[in-house]
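hey
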């Protein structure tokens, strides 16, 4: 991870400080607003190029990401690699699924990509959807890993930016105990 990438996040105003409820349900005092980065096509393209180059020798034929940020990144990485991009949408039964005519099978070697990694829940859901379709997941790429590298998917993982941002169980959140206003993300 480049210090320059972290500086880019800061300069774009993508690193917010306060009291946040994350999608995972955990609380944090720092939030990464990925769309402040994703609205910059030139920067997003360069980060996706970094990911594409990292996974060149993996014989990938499909890139898949969860809605919404992961879908944008999946498209750009797939475009650069000259392969197809799929979107894994939320399923009514929980987890993720491929709809809208997207299909996978045993010959597919898939790179999973997402925007921000906190607990790994969205990525695990996409991995499950790929494996349920009979395809092989060969790697995971993340724009911003806020777990400090603590998540292990048992397959190659690459993050453009790795940060160590503490999260809290809502019951034990020190910010809740001081009645700091909670913002939902």
């Amino acid at each position: 991870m480049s210090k320059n990438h972290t500086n880019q996040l800061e300069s774009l105003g993508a690193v917010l400080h306060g009291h946040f409820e994350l999608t995972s349900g955990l609380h944090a005092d720092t939030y990464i607003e990925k769309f402040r980065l994703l609205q910059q096509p030139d920067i997003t393209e360069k980060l996706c190029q970094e990911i594409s180059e990292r996974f060149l020798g993996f014989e990938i034929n499909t890139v898949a990401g969860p809605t919404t940020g992961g879908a944008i990144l999946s498209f750009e990485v797939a475009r650069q690699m000259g392969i197809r991009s799929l979107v894994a949408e939320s399923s009514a039964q929980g987890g993720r699924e491929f709809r809208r005519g997207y299909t996978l099978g045993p010959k597919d070697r898939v790179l999973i990509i997402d925007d921000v990694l906190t607990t790994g829940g969205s990525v695990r859901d996409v991995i499950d959807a790929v494996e349920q379709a009979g395809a092989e997941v060969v790697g995971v790429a993340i724009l911003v890993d806020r777990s400090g590298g603590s998540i292990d998917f048992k397959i190659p993982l690459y993050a453009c930016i790795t940060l160590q941002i503490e999260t809290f169980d809502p019951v034990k959140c020190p910010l809740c105990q001081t009645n700091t206003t909670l913002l939902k993300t």
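The mean pLDDT is 94. The CA atoms of residues 31 and 114 lie 16 Å apart.
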